[in-house]
Write a structure and sequence with these properties.
2 domains, 246 residues, 28% helix, five-stranded antiparallel β-sheet, BirA Bifunctional Protein, domain 2, seven-stranded mixed β-sheet, SH3 type barrels, alpha+beta, 6 helices
């Protein structure tokens, strides 16, 4: 299972690479690790229904098709942890900056967002048939419509080819995904937590009951996050209940 040996499908433009991957799944069963890449997507999406803004031809916009085994279906957020770790290692390969994973799906370079992940699943009845793993990495873009965003080029001062970043990503994702399928849950969880943003210092978070100052303790395999507040209380939240305040 070497994803780098599977030639990616390159598109000049599409609505979103995830949508294109879903259409491929409706037409048949592509090889696991198949990758769709677009130089521009008109309807790129992120978590919480956010739009993913990317200038044409400047970044890496890719989606991978995976068929997770039943063992992964029992702990679905393990796939998200695995993908985040693969993207984290990819960015580390290209930049001297501090690369961290921000729960649930962002990858940061020096506390600024450089990559995002959106995983969408396809089900056959109650069976998890396929996962479409969408990954956006800011490669050469230097001007953004949102604050706290950055790119590899902004940190390295070099122009990188999206193809080069993709090859590294394919290699990292292939290796981490193999570990996941073999049941190496402890390794993935340990490496994920070591890279987790907010685990060493208190950060400000907005909850339904107001703002808190807290440090990340862990992220469970169901996606919930556990925080330790500055008052010494442990609290657990899911994605809809917590937002980081910069």
């Amino acid at each position: 299972m070497n994803f780098e040996s599977i030639p990616p499908v390159w598109l000049d433009e599409t609505d979103s690479t995830n949508a294109e991957a879903m259409r491929m799944l409706k037409r048949g069963k592509p090889t696991e690790g198949s990758c769709i890449v677009a130089r521009y997507q008109s309807e790129g999406r992120g978590q919480r229904s956010n739009h993913w803004n990317s200038k044409p031809g400047e970044n890496l916009l890719a989606s991978f098709i995976l068929y997770p085994p039943e063992s992964v279906a029992r702990h679905p957020f393990l796939l998200s942890k695995s993908v985040a770790l693969a993207v984290h290692l990819t960015l580390q390969h290209f930049t001297p900056g501090q690369v961290q994973i921000k729960w649930p799906n962002d990858i940061l370079i020096d506390t600024k967002k450089a990559a995002g992940i959106l995983i969408e699943n396809q089900w056959l009845g109650s069976h998890w048939y396929a996962a479409v793993v969408g990954i956006g990495i800011n490669v050469n873009q230097k001007e953004f419509k949102v604050e706290h965003a950055t790119s590899l080029a902004s940190n390295t001062m070099e122009v990188l080819k999206a193809e080069t970043v993709l090859t590294e990503l394919q290699t990292r994702l292939s290796r981490i995904y193999r570990s996941l399928c073999k049941g190496d849950r402890e390794y993935i969880t340990a490496e994920y937590h070591q890279a987790l943003f907010g685990s060493d210092l208190n950060q400000s978070y907005l909850t339904a009951k107001g703002q808190i100052e807290a440090r990340v303790i862990q992220v469970f395999d169901d996606g919930r996050i556990e925080l330790l507040t500055d008052q010494g209380f442990s609290q657990t939240f899911d994605l809809s209940e917590l937002r980081l305040i910069y």
